[in-house]
Write a structure and sequence with these properties.
This protein is α+β, with helices and mostly antiparallel strands. The chain has a single domain (3-95, 115-198), classed as L,D-transpeptidase catalytic domain-like (Beta Barrel), CATH 2.40.440. 25% of the residues lie in helices and 25% in strands. The chain is built from four helices and nine strands; from the N terminus they run αβαββββββαβαβ. It has helices spanning 3-17, 32-48, 159-165, 179-189, and strands at 26-28, 57-62, 72-76, 81-85, 116-126, 129-136, 150-153, 175-177, 194-198. It has a nine-stranded mixed β-sheet with strand order 1-4-3-2-9-5-6-7-8, sandwiched between helices. α3 (159-165) links the parallel β7 (150-153) and β8. The radius of gyration is 16 Å and the shape is globular. The relative contact order is 0.21.
Protein backbone atom coordinates (compact mmCIF):
# COMPACT_ATOMS: atom_id res chain seq x y z
CA UNK A 1 0.00 0.00 0.00
CA UNK A 2 1.46 3.38 -1.01
CA UNK A 3 1.46 6.44 1.22
CA UNK A 4 -1.56 8.11 -0.42
CA UNK A 5 -3.64 4.94 -0.19
CA UNK A 6 -2.68 4.61 3.46
CA UNK A 7 -3.72 8.21 4.17
CA UNK A 8 -7.09 7.65 2.44
CA UNK A 9 -7.66 4.48 4.47
CA UNK A 10 -6.67 6.16 7.71
CA UNK A 11 -8.86 9.18 7.01
CA UNK A 12 -11.84 7.01 6.21
CA UNK A 13 -11.31 5.06 9.41
CA UNK A 14 -11.08 8.27 11.40
CA UNK A 15 -14.25 9.54 9.75
CA UNK A 16 -16.28 6.45 10.56
CA UNK A 17 -14.87 5.19 13.85
CA UNK A 18 -13.49 8.14 15.79
CA UNK A 19 -16.63 10.22 15.34
CA UNK A 20 -20.10 9.69 16.83
CA UNK A 21 -22.50 7.41 14.96
CA UNK A 22 -24.28 10.52 13.68
CA UNK A 23 -21.42 12.56 12.30
CA UNK A 24 -23.54 15.65 11.80
CA UNK A 25 -23.37 18.52 14.20
CA UNK A 26 -20.32 17.91 16.30
CA UNK A 27 -20.35 20.85 18.66
CA UNK A 28 -17.00 21.93 19.99
CA UNK A 29 -16.01 24.55 22.50
CA UNK A 30 -12.85 26.59 22.44
CA UNK A 31 -10.39 23.78 21.78
CA UNK A 32 -7.43 24.60 19.51
CA UNK A 33 -9.25 23.80 16.26
CA UNK A 34 -12.44 25.54 17.35
CA UNK A 35 -10.48 28.63 18.32
CA UNK A 36 -8.77 28.75 14.90
CA UNK A 37 -12.10 28.34 13.10
CA UNK A 38 -13.75 31.11 15.09
CA UNK A 39 -10.79 33.45 14.60
CA UNK A 40 -10.79 32.81 10.85
CA UNK A 41 -14.56 33.25 10.64
CA UNK A 42 -14.41 36.59 12.43
CA UNK A 43 -11.58 37.78 10.18
CA UNK A 44 -13.37 36.75 6.98
CA UNK A 45 -16.69 38.27 8.08
CA UNK A 46 -14.85 41.53 8.78
CA UNK A 47 -13.09 41.34 5.41
CA UNK A 48 -16.38 40.80 3.56
CA UNK A 49 -17.77 43.92 5.22
CA UNK A 50 -21.02 45.35 3.89
CA UNK A 51 -21.40 42.58 1.31
CA UNK A 52 -22.96 40.43 4.06
CA UNK A 53 -26.48 40.83 5.40
CA UNK A 54 -25.95 38.75 8.55
CA UNK A 55 -22.86 38.24 10.67
CA UNK A 56 -23.98 35.84 13.40
CA UNK A 57 -22.88 32.59 11.73
CA UNK A 58 -20.25 31.86 9.08
CA UNK A 59 -19.40 28.68 7.20
CA UNK A 60 -15.71 27.74 7.01
CA UNK A 61 -14.91 24.95 4.53
CA UNK A 62 -11.54 23.29 4.96
CA UNK A 63 -10.69 21.41 1.78
CA UNK A 64 -7.26 20.55 3.13
CA UNK A 65 -8.65 17.36 4.69
CA UNK A 66 -10.16 14.17 3.25
CA UNK A 67 -13.84 14.17 2.26
CA UNK A 68 -14.68 11.45 4.78
CA UNK A 69 -13.91 13.87 7.62
CA UNK A 70 -16.33 16.65 8.68
CA UNK A 71 -14.76 19.78 7.20
CA UNK A 72 -17.66 22.23 6.79
CA UNK A 73 -17.52 24.18 10.03
CA UNK A 74 -20.45 26.33 11.16
CA UNK A 75 -18.90 29.06 13.32
CA UNK A 76 -21.43 30.58 15.70
CA UNK A 77 -19.83 33.93 16.35
CA UNK A 78 -22.22 35.07 19.06
CA UNK A 79 -21.90 32.08 21.40
CA UNK A 80 -18.40 30.94 20.40
CA UNK A 81 -19.20 27.38 19.28
CA UNK A 82 -18.47 25.34 16.16
CA UNK A 83 -20.44 22.53 14.52
CA UNK A 84 -18.87 20.39 11.79
CA UNK A 85 -20.35 18.43 8.88
CA UNK A 86 -19.19 16.52 5.84
CA UNK A 87 -19.24 18.31 2.50
CA UNK A 88 -18.36 17.22 -1.03
CA UNK A 89 -15.97 18.90 -3.45
CA UNK A 90 -16.14 19.03 -7.23
CA UNK A 91 -15.12 16.17 -9.48
CA UNK A 92 -12.90 18.52 -11.44
CA UNK A 93 -10.91 19.12 -8.26
CA UNK A 94 -10.49 15.38 -7.61
CA UNK A 95 -10.10 13.50 -10.92
CA UNK A 96 -8.68 10.44 -9.15
CA UNK A 97 -11.79 10.29 -6.94
CA UNK A 98 -9.68 9.48 -3.88
CA UNK A 99 -11.40 11.96 -1.56
CA UNK A 100 -8.69 14.63 -1.70
CA UNK A 101 -9.16 18.02 -3.36
CA UNK A 102 -6.14 18.62 -5.59
CA UNK A 103 -6.85 22.09 -6.96
CA UNK A 104 -9.47 24.82 -7.28
CA UNK A 105 -10.88 26.39 -10.42
CA UNK A 106 -13.25 29.22 -11.28
CA UNK A 107 -13.48 28.20 -14.96
CA UNK A 108 -16.96 27.42 -16.34
CA UNK A 109 -17.27 23.75 -17.24
CA UNK A 110 -14.42 22.70 -14.97
CA UNK A 111 -16.74 20.98 -12.45
CA UNK A 112 -14.21 22.07 -9.84
CA UNK A 113 -14.58 23.71 -6.46
CA UNK A 114 -13.66 27.40 -6.23
CA UNK A 115 -11.86 28.92 -3.25
CA UNK A 116 -12.61 32.16 -1.48
CA UNK A 117 -15.46 34.02 0.21
CA UNK A 118 -19.10 33.63 -0.83
CA UNK A 119 -22.37 35.15 0.30
CA UNK A 120 -25.38 32.87 0.70
CA UNK A 121 -28.51 34.05 -1.06
CA UNK A 122 -32.07 32.76 -1.18
CA UNK A 123 -33.49 29.26 -1.29
CA UNK A 124 -34.86 27.95 -4.59
CA UNK A 125 -36.06 24.65 -6.00
CA UNK A 126 -33.89 23.30 -8.78
CA UNK A 127 -32.25 20.19 -10.20
CA UNK A 128 -31.18 19.01 -6.74
CA UNK A 129 -34.35 20.03 -4.90
CA UNK A 130 -34.16 22.86 -2.39
CA UNK A 131 -30.82 24.63 -2.81
CA UNK A 132 -29.15 27.86 -1.74
CA UNK A 133 -27.72 30.23 -4.33
CA UNK A 134 -24.23 31.56 -3.70
CA UNK A 135 -22.49 34.71 -4.85
CA UNK A 136 -18.73 34.75 -5.24
CA UNK A 137 -17.08 37.74 -3.56
CA UNK A 138 -13.58 37.31 -4.99
CA UNK A 139 -11.82 36.88 -8.35
CA UNK A 140 -11.23 33.19 -7.52
CA UNK A 141 -14.98 32.49 -7.35
CA UNK A 142 -16.48 35.32 -9.40
CA UNK A 143 -18.21 32.86 -11.76
CA UNK A 144 -20.16 31.08 -8.98
CA UNK A 145 -23.56 32.36 -10.11
CA UNK A 146 -22.94 31.69 -13.82
CA UNK A 147 -21.59 28.22 -12.97
CA UNK A 148 -24.62 27.52 -10.75
CA UNK A 149 -22.40 26.80 -7.75
CA UNK A 150 -24.84 26.32 -4.88
CA UNK A 151 -25.40 24.48 -1.60
CA UNK A 152 -27.59 21.40 -2.01
CA UNK A 153 -28.24 17.97 -0.55
CA UNK A 154 -26.94 14.72 -2.05
CA UNK A 155 -27.19 11.06 -1.07
CA UNK A 156 -23.50 10.62 -1.92
CA UNK A 157 -22.67 12.72 1.15
CA UNK A 158 -24.23 10.43 3.75
CA UNK A 159 -22.49 8.46 6.46
CA UNK A 160 -23.66 5.26 4.72
CA UNK A 161 -21.82 6.32 1.56
CA UNK A 162 -18.62 6.87 3.52
CA UNK A 163 -18.99 3.51 5.25
CA UNK A 164 -19.27 1.79 1.87
CA UNK A 165 -16.72 3.72 -0.18
CA UNK A 166 -14.43 5.41 2.36
CA UNK A 167 -15.12 8.85 0.90
CA UNK A 168 -17.93 11.10 -0.28
CA UNK A 169 -19.06 11.29 -3.86
CA UNK A 170 -18.20 14.36 -5.91
CA UNK A 171 -20.31 17.31 -7.00
CA UNK A 172 -20.06 19.50 -10.09
CA UNK A 173 -18.33 22.11 -7.94
CA UNK A 174 -21.22 22.69 -5.53
CA UNK A 175 -21.10 22.40 -1.75
CA UNK A 176 -23.16 19.23 -1.36
CA UNK A 177 -24.15 17.82 2.04
CA UNK A 178 -26.09 14.85 3.40
CA UNK A 179 -29.84 15.56 3.24
CA UNK A 180 -30.30 15.71 7.03
CA UNK A 181 -27.28 18.00 7.42
CA UNK A 182 -28.46 20.24 4.61
CA UNK A 183 -31.79 20.86 6.34
CA UNK A 184 -29.82 22.23 9.27
CA UNK A 185 -27.65 24.30 6.93
CA UNK A 186 -30.76 25.89 5.40
CA UNK A 187 -31.76 27.26 8.77
CA UNK A 188 -28.24 28.31 9.78
CA UNK A 189 -26.38 29.63 6.76
CA UNK A 190 -28.82 30.98 4.19
CA UNK A 191 -29.93 34.58 3.88
CA UNK A 192 -26.81 36.69 3.45
CA UNK A 193 -24.19 34.93 5.56
CA UNK A 194 -20.56 34.14 4.72
CA UNK A 195 -19.05 30.94 3.39
CA UNK A 196 -15.28 30.77 3.10
CA UNK A 197 -13.55 27.88 1.31
CA UNK A 198 -9.86 27.04 1.02
CA UNK A 199 -7.27 24.38 1.87
CA UNK A 200 -6.85 25.42 5.48
CA UNK A 201 -5.41 22.32 7.15
CA UNK A 202 -7.46 22.83 10.31
CA UNK A 203 -7.94 19.07 10.81
Amino acid sequence: MDRRSFIVSAAATAGTLALPARVAAQASGLDARGTKILELARAEVARAGDALWRRDIAGILDFGVHSSIPRFHFAHLENGTVQSFRVAHGMGSDPEHDGFLNWFSNVPGSNATSRGAYITWEWYTGKYGTSVRLGGLEPDNSNALDRAIVMHSADYCTEAHVERWGRLGRSNGCFAMAPSDFLFALSQLSGGRLLYADQLGLG
